[in-house]
Design brief:
Elements lengths: L4 E16 L2 E15 L2 E7 L7 E2 L4 E4 L1 E6 L20 H15 L3 H13 L3 E9 L7 H12 L5 E7 L10 H8 L4 E7 L1 H5 L2 H14 L3 E6 L3 H17 L7 E5 L8 H14 L1 E5 L10 H6 L4 E3 L16 H12 L4 H7 L1 H4 L22 E4 L4 H7 L3 E6 L2 E2 L2
Parallel strand pairs: 1-4, 6-7, 7-8, 8-9, 9-10, 10-11, 11-12, 12-13
Antiparallel strand pairs: 1-2, 2-3, 5-14, 14-15, 15-16
Helix pairs in contact: 2-3, 6-7, 7-8, 10-13, 11-13
Length: 403
Amino acid sequence: MENKTFILKNVLLETGFEYLDNEVVSTKTDLFCIEIQNGKINNIYSNDPYASAIDAKGHLMLPAFKDMHAHLDKMLFGLPWQAVSEKRKTVKDMIAYEQEMIPIWLKTSVERTEKMIDFLQKYGTNFIRSHFNVDPTSGLESLKHLEKALQNKKVTVDAELVAFPQHGVFYTETLPILKDVAELDQVSFIGGVDPYTIDGSIEKGMGAIVEIALENNKGIDLHLHEMGDSGIKTIEFLIDRAKENPQLRGKAFISHGFALSRLSDLEAETIAQKLAEAGVGIVSSVPFGNIIMPIPILRKHGVEVLIGNDNIQDHWNTFGSGNMLQKANLIAELYGYGTEFLLSRTLAFATRYKLPLDDKGNQQWPKVGDQADMVFVKASCSAEAVSRISPVTSLIHKGNIVF
């Protein structure tokens, strides 16, 4: 549903914290009317339950969610169920499989990408960072199909795109294609994957990625699954290049970065400080099992930690829920963020750090003039929404009612 001007009534907003002995014990809320005009919040005023307006039914309004790591171009979503195969154990195994299957997947990728976007939106997501394959098998077709799907959904979702050489920069003849794609305005980041394992050299693989990004004023978002020495050295390589090239600050990211999970606390503290100083962020799908990332240490030092679903239904993994609240919930459970205050702060991982209340309990969102990107959930406050993974009842994107 597309609207220019409308009013919402019975909108539950957080207004502050309740304290007992200097501890946040609950969150104060009240009902309001929200007027939306031309995609922005035009007015916020005391609730009028009798107003001629869209009834939000007392549901809590939160900033819309952002999925910061997706692969919309090659999900198997929309195809018959298929679990992962135990025969494909390495990244190179996956590359061989993709070379065989990509021509088949591309035949239906536009309509399936749209279905995946619908799926993510039902959980309150209105912004997606999506990688798209750049390799000799895909050529430019993965990008073209992804762009077509996003164009069809432009009223209800925004995205930023990462040119992703899934099959290596040098392992396959991908470098010329990557250079061409990097010149396109619609591409925001240059990606990469395990340069030591796939391309045989950290310096060669990372050097090419950084050079292309700098030449085209792009960011970097590197997939790094490698553990141990090669993983840490790759992270340090990007830290060093970001320090040398300040234009990369805030635009350079390591996705996964599993090597960080094997560090001692002292080692993690040291590298977290380096990441923060260089402005290099970490993007995580919130691993579990024996791969638990040092997210609290990273955040303590000011490292930007972004969260995404990554795999939902594909040949790599099938455990992504599509639900950013569920990701925040997993973080809270893994790291013991169980208090009212800490649960409310954990919502930031779903919204890229936009929160209704600041750390002191001052209301900071929504404000008149803000873009009208919001989600409604059946919850009494942010803390409950995270802890209970509360149901999403509505999503508004740039003033357009998605559902």
